[in-house]
From TrEMBL:
Top-rank taxon, per record: Bacteria
Domain Peptidase M20 dimerisation: 175-269
Record keywords, A-Z: Hydrolase, Manganese, Metal-binding
MF terms (GO), sorted A to Z: hippurate hydrolase activity; metal ion binding; N-acetyldiaminopimelate deacetylase activity
PANTHER family hit by this protein: METALLOPEPTIDASE, PUTATIVE (AFU_ORTHOLOGUE AFUA_6G09600)-RELATED, PEPTIDASE M20 FAMILY MEMBER
E.C. numbers: 3.5.1.32
Protein's name according to its UniProt entry: Amidohydrolase
GO biological process: diaminopimelate biosynthetic process
Enzyme superclass (EC): hydrolase
Note on cofactor: The Mn(2+) ion enhances activity.
Length: 380
């Protein structure tokens, strides 16, 4: 079996046994065993799940990251080896990411003597609930790391294509909750109560003025109310209403401004409508902000490698890879996997032809980045 065939079969093994965020025990065990089998050293970080390994020696240090967790989705795809775990599925392709990183590790290990520094491998758990990157950073994995690279499969991009950009590539992700409390009443006698449903409607409509009236047309932001919960019957005015939703932005100051405007609209409109209000803001991961130098570098190596490269527009999805780039320079890029369905869809499936080239590219990128850093160190 050649390396390409081996990687395809390892990916199928991961795909058949998906594990949810923070529960990647078997996945961690398998990855660790495969790394050890290749003689790759495992670093003794204190992690519940996930594994960090290293190839090469000394400075500079490049980190390559892949996430490894799956989603609570019942698979209904054309995959050769679909999930064997009921209600769990690798619908975001993190099995592909883990396999590509493993493949890169095996290739780098074969050429370890050629490396002019160290490549650290992050097999990161719990990306889907945005907690894994923070766990790894807290454990100290970024110590001595000069540059960090990460990627996501891009289902809409054909195999053989690559995309990245300068600056923000993925959004700030925040969640909000609005709780309204009024006085319930008979629907025939609204004057006896204070109506949370009318207040909720005013608030929802007004929230939609933030992007159109408070944000420049040259910037981008989304405010979406995604859940409303109120009422129990046709002739009762309820005393409570709950709203929930998400805000997506790319700029830190716009993120703050939207939060401020939302809070004001909720409290002042509720006051005007005579109902009580609570506004809760749950901060998710910040935007993934690429370092322009490394974004250009990754695209240059991709072209040399033979990928067709694109300058992609930022996406409104979130990625906890953002936390690494908060501490270190680096880049996040997309690799085409030509999937028929989008991420998080029960029919999601990747084209296996994308695996081996992606592993070769990831290894090449690390090796070339080490050389580049070494040259900079030498000339400094
Ligand atoms: Zn996902
Ligand atoms: Zn993902």
């Amino acid at each position: 079996m050649n390396l390409e065939e081996k990687l395809i079969s390892l990916r199928r093994e991961l795909h058949q046994h998906p594990e949810l965020s923070g529960e990647e025990f078997q996945t961690t065990q398998k990855l660790t065993a495969w790394l050890k089998e290749a003689g790759i050293r495992i670093l003794p970080y204190d992690l519940k799940t996930g594994v960090v390994a290293e190839i090469g020696h000394g400075s500079p240090v490049i980190a390559l990251r892949a996430d490894i967790d799956a989603l609570p989705i019942e698979e209904n795809s054309e995959a050769v080896c679909p999930s064997l775990e009921k209600g769990k599925m690798h619908a975001c392709g993190h099995d592909f990411h883990a396999t590509v990183l493993l493949g890169a590790a095996l290739l780098l290990k074969q050429n370890e003597s050629r490396l002019v520094g160290t490549v650290r491998l992050f097999f990161q758990p719990a990306e889907e609930n945005y907690s894994g990157a923070l766990q790894l950073i807290k454990a100290g994995v970024l110590n001595d790391v000069d540059v960090v690279f990460g990627f996501h499969n891009a289902p809409k991009m054909p195999v053989g294509e690559f995309g990245t950009c300068h600056g923000a590539i993925m959004a700030n992700v925040d969640r909000f909750e609005i709780n309204l409390a009024g006085v319930g009443a008979h629907a025939a006698y609204p004057e006896n109560g204070t109506d949370v449903i009318v207040a909720a409607s005013e608030i929802i409509n007004s929230l939609q003025t933030i992007v159109s009236r408070n944000i420049s047309s040259h910037d981008s932001a989304i405010v979406s109310v995604t859940r409303i919960n109120a009422g129990s019957g046709w002739n009762i005015l309820p005393e409570k209403a709950e709203l929930e939703g998400t805000v997506r932005t790319f700029d830190a100051s716009i993120r703050k401004e939207i939060q401020r405007r939302m809070r004001d609209l909720v409290y002042y409109l509720a006051k005007a409508m005579d109902v009580g209000a609570q506004f809760l803001w749950h901060e998710g991961p910040p935007a993934v902000i690429n370092t322009p130098y490394w974004s250009d570098f990754s695209a240059k190596i991709a072209r040399q490698f033979g990928y067709v490269t694109h300058n992609v527009t930022p996406q409104n999805g979130g990625e906890d890879f953002a936390h690494y780039l908060h501490h270190r320079p680096g880049v996040f890029f997309h690799i085409g996997t030509g999937s028929p369905q989008s991420l998080h869809h029960p029919g999601f499936n990747i084209d296996e032809k994308a695996i081996f080239p992606a592993a070769e590219y990831y290894a090449l990128l690390a090796e070339e980045a080490l050389k580049d850093l070494k040259n900079t160190q030498a000339s400094a």
